[in-house]
Design goal:
By secondary structure, the chain is of the alpha+beta class. Among the domains are: about 240 residues, Transferase(Phosphotransferase), domain 1; about 80 residues; about 280 residues, TolB, C-terminal domain (Neuraminidase, 6 Propeller). It has 13 helices and 59 strands. The strands form 15 sheets. Strands 11, 12, 13, 14 and 15 form a 5-stranded antiparallel beta sheet that branches. β36 and β37 form a beta hairpin. The longest helix is centred in the middle third of the chain and has 25 residues.
Length: about 900
């Protein structure tokens, strides 16, 4: 039909395909008008199994079509005269039928279906090509072989027909008006070829092939491939009926029959559907009495088959046993995020970090042996599916994005923190979290301005509302109200139509809804508890589903997801651990400081001889401060209370350590002698949540972050003498956090999200002049070199950056940021912004960095999949 070029869409930043047609198309205005009509009709088909059309037009007299760029091979190349397995055939055919059904429902008939117009992408997706364009093609070379005959115009009486010899329906060959049932016949010829490796209708010439289509039945599939079940063979024959009235009446019915076969055995004894072949019908017409008895029997069997198929669509209602298998990660994988199963239970999405530091979202069809990264999802985290499984949404670099899996590039929906969690409802809304100190917001799935839905209750120490999950009505939703004391965290149910919320149960875990149940993690065990969706109430007791399911002890994210039809995906074996490891400025590993564990927020003493670090216990949700003597390598537990202690900071003289603790039911700032002797003293105690205390070089102040119900998160100063009454240092309607004094005490480095993503700034102390931007393209966790002449920060793409600075004069001078090395951060729910886990600490001379990272060769992780998980509950 023309030439196809690889092109770049510079406006949307994506690769596309441009098909340029001969200029003769523009000479015939009627023909060009029909071409444009058909191309526009095809562009209206938004379905993951149909090639997406982006644009159509003319250039220098030549019409062109711009479409998505596909990577893979055509079905013709995939078959190459060799039969596919019944299982793979059904998988491809089901996708094919679903795409065809979407087109037919728009009133579009393809008319030229053949293996050359079906494309198999590298991740196992089927794409139908050239919708509607077949009517515009010209005559081909009649001397070409049957394996390479192109689309052609065939003159017949009483009319004309478009199609490819060998795949046209009888009514096409006769030049009659065709409808969607003609496509179903072509579908049958392709399905036959996939199963047998040869054409359904084949002659030495085009005329003989056309005669076979009109008068003959193809060789029985069971003679070519004994692995084909009778039910599958009957389905193919039903597509190939000569009379359109005797075929499937719609591609939707065909997809339904294929879906019923998709989970069945290929054994000859398993009959899933009942269809009457053309041979049987002819026999009935010749024997009317016996035929009536046979017809009645077939009708009864058909009714029974319909009932079976109806309940077969809900496998959890019929199957008696759960089926389990594991999915290993791709090679060179370092860490994996929580697996997220699609609503139909067929595909998995997960975040994957490779050894080279690259982080993408990957998709793995359960029926495939391979997972593939999704283009455009670099630095993407926390993915979630659309209700129809055709799209995903995810967070990336301060934006909430949407990716239609049939399209080429993600679409930005709105600004959002870098670590949002979300859910996509059937009502067309996306509900997402905005991080610490905030509730849930909603935004249309097409993008727009977010609207607040829930508000955190700071008076009860709520940290945030997170991990929302829509219920089937698309209006009600579950979410986790995370508390400063994890034992007080709870799962609630809310509504888009009301401010009222309802507490369902105590749990420091994300939750998922499956028909009749709510699933969550309690004490590292995945459990399911009955849920009355009409009354929005829990019922009965919780039952264990799987042991050792990891859950992030900080944000409550549990490593599992469940589909609507009973497919459960999870990780087991605990969260990936990290270590404190020395690196030089080039990223070369110099040595390990700790054994594997769960560490964060390292802080050096003034002489660089000791480091204070937070160490968490995932089993108890407890966290304490530990001190490590770097010369001896000996760790000592510094705090021993039952709360969560975090963010240690040494006093300038090294005699004391300040830290945050939740031990008294509030997030308070404490200090304690670094020798470990004596009592711990509360410096400030109040209901507001606090983070990241840091001393001024003269020891007179501590700067820290505090949540404010009105102004979000502010930087406050706590005087360490007199009344110790805190006062605002930086207070706006945005987040200001992670404040750190320069070594001379004249400047404070901090982060703010005023641009829509977190960036690093420097402000004079006291705040008498304007702020100075430091980072470009995102940054967090600023740290100073000991002499104050260099600043370091961490980027969303995991790079440790360095920038030369000079604050000796009245103005603060900044050099060009340059990357040092990639930090391979380990753990779930990584938050690039506030409050920040604290991934590194520079030595005073800036020549070494102590980083919380993974070992060089971490143990491979797996995703476990359970089909029909409710069968264990019933037993």
């Amino acid at each position: 039909m023309g030439e196809v070029y690889l092109a770049r869409d510079t406006q949307l930043g994506r690769d596309v395909a441009v098909k340029v047609l001969p200029s003769t198309y523009s000479d015939d205005k009627e023909r060009l008008h029909r071409f444009e009509q058909e191309a526009c009709a095809a562009s209206a088909l938004n379905h993951p199994n149909i090639l997406s059309i982006y644009d159509v037009g003319t250039h220098d007299g030549s019409p062109y079509v711009v479409s998505e760029l596909l990577q893979g091979q055509t079905l013709r190349q995939r078959i190459s005269g060799v039969a596919l397995s019944p299982r793979r055939t059904i998988d491809f055919a089901l996708q094919f039928a679903q795409g065809l059904a979407a087109a037919h429902e728009k009133g579009i008939v393809h008319r030229d279906l053949k293996p050359d117009n079906l494309f198999i992408t590298n991740d196992g997706r089927v794409k139908i090509l050239d919708f509607g364009l077949a009517k515009l093609t010209g005559a081909g070379n009649t001397e070409l072989s049957q394996t390479s005959i192109p689309t052609r115009r065939v003159d017949t009486d009483p009319g004309k027909v478009m199609g490819t010899v060998g795949y046209m329906s009888p009514e096409q060959l006769k030049g009659r008006e065709v409808d969607q049932r003609s496509d179903i016949f072509s579908f049958g010829t392709i399905l036959y070829e996939m199963l047998s490796g040869r054409r359904a209708f084949h002659g030495e010439s085009a005329a003989e092939t056309m005669s076979a289509i009109l008068k003959e039945d193809p060789t029985d599939l069971s003679e070519t491939n004994q692995r084909i079940s009778p039910a599958l063979e009957r389905l193919v024959n039903h597509c190939l009926e000569k009379n359109p009235e005797e075929r499937f009446h719609s591609a939707r019915d065909l997809a339904f029959a294929l879906e019923a076969l998709s989970g069945s055995s290929s054994g000859a004894t398993q009959t899933q559907t009942v269809m009457v072949s053309a041979t049987t019908q002819r026999w009935i017409r010749r024997h009317p009495i016996a035929g009536w008895i046979v017809a009645a029997s077939v009708l009864l069997l058909a009714a029974l088959a319909f009932i079976f198929l109806y309940f077969r669509r809900a496998p959890t209602a019929e199957a008696t046993e759960a089926t389990r298998f594991t999915i290993p990660l791709p090679e060179k994988a370092v860490t994996i995020g929580p697996p997220v199963i699609s609503p139909d239970g067929r595909r998995l999405i997960f975040r994957l970090t490779t050894e080279d530091g690259k982080e993408f979202l990957w998709m793995r069809p359960l029926a495939s042996l391979d997972a593939q990264p999704l283009a455009g999802t670099e630095s993407g985290i926390q993915p979630f599916w659309s209700p129809d499984g055709r799209s995903i949404a995810f967070s990336s670099r301060g934006k909430l994005k949407r990716l239609d899996l049939s399209a080429g590039a993600p679409q930005t929906l709105c600004d959002a923190p870098s670590n949002v969690s979300g859910t996509w409802g059937t009502s067309g809304w996306i509900l997402f979290s905005r991080g610490v100190a905030d509730g849930l917001y909603r935004v249309p799935a097409t993008g727009g301005t977010p609207e607040r839905v829930t508000q955190v209750d700071a008076s009860h120490n709520e940290l945030e509302h997170t991990w929302p999950v829509f219920l089937p009505d698309g209006r009600h939703f579950l979410y986790l109200a995370r508390n400063a004391q994890p034992e007080n965290s709870a799962i609630y149910v809310g509504s888009l139509d009301s401010k009222e919320t309802k507490r369902l149960l105590q749990a420091h875990s994300s939750a998922e809804y499956a028909p009749g149940y709510v699933l969550f993690v309690r004490e590292n065990t995945l459990v399911a508890q009955g849920f009355d969706i009409a009354r929005l109430e829990m019922k009965g007791d919780a039952f264990p589903i799987a042991e050792q399911v990891p859950r992030n002890p900080q944000n409550g994210r549990a490593m599992f997801s469940v589909s609507e039809n009973g497919v459960l995906a999870l990780r087991t074996g605990g969260l990936v651990q990290n270590e404190l490891i020395w690196f030089d400025r080039a990223g070369k590993q110099l040595g390990e400081v700790t054994q594997p564990g769960s560490y964060s927020a390292p802080s050096f003493s003034a002489d660089d001889k000791r480091v204070a670090v937070r160490r968490a216990d995932p089993q108890t949700n407890n966290a304490d401060i530990w001190l490590i003597d770097l010369e001896r390598g000996v760790p000592i537990r510094f705090t021993t209370d039952l709360g969560i202690d975090n963010f240690p900071a040494w006093s300038p003289d090294g005699s004391r350590i300040a830290f945050i603790s939740t031990r008294n039911g509030q997030t308070s700032i404490y200090q304690k002698s670094s020798s470990g002797a004596g009592a711990e003293e509360a410096l400030i105690t109040s209901a507001e949540l606090k983070y990241n205390p840091q001393w001024s070089p003269d020891g007179r102040y501590i700067v820290y972050s505090q949540i404010n119900a009105t102004t979000n998160v502010d930087l406050l100063l706590l005087p360490l003498s007199g009344e110790r009454k805190p006062q605002p240092f930086l207070q706006t309607n945005f987040i200001e956090a992670q404040g750190r004094f320069s070594p001379d005490g004249r400047w404070v480095a901090y982060i703010s999200n005023e641009t829509g993503q977190f960036e690093v700034y420097v402000q004079s102390f006291p705040a008498t002049s304007g702020k100075v931007p430091i980072s470009t393209g995102g940054g967090s966790q600023p740290q100073w070199r000991g002499d104050g002449r260099e600043l370091y920060y961490y980027t969303p793409d995991r790079k440790l950056m360095a920038v030369e600075v000079n604050g000796e004069g009245s103005t603060f001078k900044v050099g060009v940021p340059r990357p040092l090395f990639n930090i391979r951060v380990v753990g779930a729910g990584i938050d690039q912004g506030f409050p920040g886990n604290g991934y590194y600490a520079p030595a005073r001379d800036g020549k070494r960095f102590l980083v919380t990272t993974s070992p060089e060769s971490p143990e491979r992780q797996q995703i476990n999949v359970v089909l029909n998980w409710t069968a264990d509950l019933k037993r």
